[in-house]
Design brief:
Elements: E1 2-8, E2 12-19, E3 22-30, H1 44-61, E4 66-73, E5 79-81, E6 102-103, E7 106-107, H2 108-114, H3 118-122, H4 133-142, E8 154-156, H5 158-167, H6 175-179, E9 184-185, E10 190-191, H7 193-198, E11 214-218, E12 221-225, E13 229-230, H8 231-239, E14 246-251, E15 255-261, E16 271-274, E17 280-287, H9 290-306, H10 313-326, E18 333-335, E19 350-352, H11 361-384, E20 392-396, H12 398-402, H13 404-412, E21 419-422, H14 426-435
Parallel strand pairs: 1-4, 4-12, 4-13, 14-20, 20-21
Antiparallel strand pairs: 1-2, 2-3, 5-8, 6-7, 9-10, 11-12, 14-15, 15-17, 16-17, 18-19
Helix pairs in contact: 1-5, 8-14, 10-11, 11-13
Length: 441
């Protein structure tokens, strides 16, 4: 049986048809834009996304009569739906920090902290932040979105909801996705009902956690769909993260620095996430990466549009990378804290130490790349404290592949004999490997 792998990312929807680890067909579509100023109950994003996934499955399957379907999704997002699968809210991404808004003088993050939940929160492996579903769910409750609802609502992560709609069945929620909600208990690998109540989720139906597939038909195509998994775990499985002396720099729209650990040693300084084979990821996520770079891309695009220049985003990137290579070191300094992140306590970025002739595209991008690398290195230092020495580095994600200077800055920090790998198609490879596991066939 061939495997269809689909990665539902923040920027692109990517899919491949794979047999015997070989990609036979691939396709890529632009992801629908993140829910903007529309009402939370206006499901514009998710209603645009589901048909694209269905289209991708059908086009990748071609003349196949039976396939295995493995989906990964960006983590830390959710939506609520009616029992029949109709969306009650739109998809609420990790980029939507609703819970940082003050209601009656208090944010939903602070309110959750006040509810005597510190012990339970520690065992989620997810220190509180405003993009977590646990915090955004409480925001919905406090804003009245969950009041006067005459039927029980169902909670889904993005991949789970896609499977619910295309299959017509209730899929299981994989531990990698359940843990990313901030409502999972690492001690017994199930939902933490005390936290769900504290987060305003009482009365909402949460899916069964597990790895069992659902089987359904799309016209005459028989589909064996495994529970959706987190995109980070899919990428790292495909990148070959399999021992404790390896460190991963997964740099995409968001960025994470991660190591493999055998036990869930918990801390407020990093996250612990379920992995595969009874292992865990020790990870520092929410580091400024592609999302932060897009701030500069949008600024440059605005300038070009005002000059009526018809330039694509790829062309802008080519110019930026060439300009950075030609530029010289300067005293320019950048802070990429345009949103809540793990590198600083700020939520506004800046460009400082500007000399009379130092504000050029090349010097600006050099300062941006240096700051990004410094953030990643600092996170790695926190990760490596009291653990095994590093002898292998894996770079994955579009930013890591595209920007060699960031890789070079990171490698300067390590001993010369450390092995390095820059991988591609890691998410497809990880999803294919996930689909071959005996307990989910």
């Amino acid at each position: 049986m061939k495997t269809i792998t689909i990665d539902c990312g923040a920027s692109f929807l990517k899919g491949a048809l794979i047999q015997n680890r070989k990609i036979e067909k691939r396709m890529q579509l632009k992801s629908p834009k993140v829910h903007g100023d529309e009402d939370i109950k206006d499901p514009v994003q998710v209603q645009a996304l589901v048909p694209l996934v269905l289209q991708m499955v059908q086009e990748l399957a071609g003349t196949e009569t039976e396939v295995r379907l493995c989906i990964s999704n960006e983590m830390h997002g959710f939506l609520l739906a009616y029992e029949d699968g109709r969306p009650y809210t739109d998809y609420i991404s990790w980029q939507k920090e609703y819970s940082s808004a003050k209601i009656d003088g208090c944010t939903s993050v602070d309110r959750l902290k006040q509810r005597d939940t510190s012990g339970d929160i520690l065992y989620t492996g997810m220190p509180l932040r405003s993009g977590l579903p646990s915090c955004n769910l409480l925001y919905l409750r406090r804003k009245g979105y969950l009041e006067n609802v005459s039927v029980r609502l169902h909670f889904y992560t993005l991949g789970d909801y896609i499977l619910r709609v295309v299959s017509g069945k209730e899929p299981m929620c994989h531990p990698t996705n359940a843990a990313a909600t901030g409502l999972y208990d690492l001690r017994d690998n199930t939902w933490n009902r005390r936290l769900i109540k504290a987060a305003g989720g009482e009365g909402i139906v949460f899916p069964e956690i597990g790895t069992k597939a659902v089987i359904f038909f799309i016209d005459s195509l028989k589909v064996h769909a495994l529970p959706a998994i987190g995109d980070q775990q899919a990428a790292l499985l495909g990148a070959g993260l399999d021992d404790v002396r390896t460190i991963s720099f997964n740099l995409g729209t968001g960025a994470q620095v991660s190591k493999l650990v055998s036990k869930a040693v918990l801390s407020e300084k990093y996250q612990i996430r379920p992995y595969f084979g009874d292992a865990y990821l020790k990870t520092i996520p929410f580091l400024p990466s592609g999302r932060a770079l897009n701030v500069y891309i949008r600024f440059l695009r605005d300038i070009l549009c005002r000059f009526q220049a018809d330039v694509t985003e790829d062309e802008i990137w080519d110019v930026l990378l060439r300009a950075e290579q030609e530029g010289e070191e300067s005293g320019l300094s950048c802070d990429l804290s345009f949103y809540e992140n793990a590198a600083t306590d700020f939520r506004q970025g800046s460009i400082t130490c500007i000399g009379e002739y130092s504000l050029t595209i090349g010097k600006l991008m050099g300062a941006v790349f240096r700051q990004m690398a410094d953030n990643f290195i600092h996170a790695a230092d926190v990760m490596e404290k009291d653990t095994f020495a590093i002898d292998r580095i894996i770079f994955s994600g579009g930013v890591a592949r595209k920007i060699a200077k960031i890789r070079d800055y990171i490698l300067e920090h390590y001993k010369s004999d450390v092995r390095t790998e820059t991988v591609s198609d890691e998410t497809f490879s990880g999803l294919y490997a996930y689909g071959q596991q005996e307990d989910v066939k």
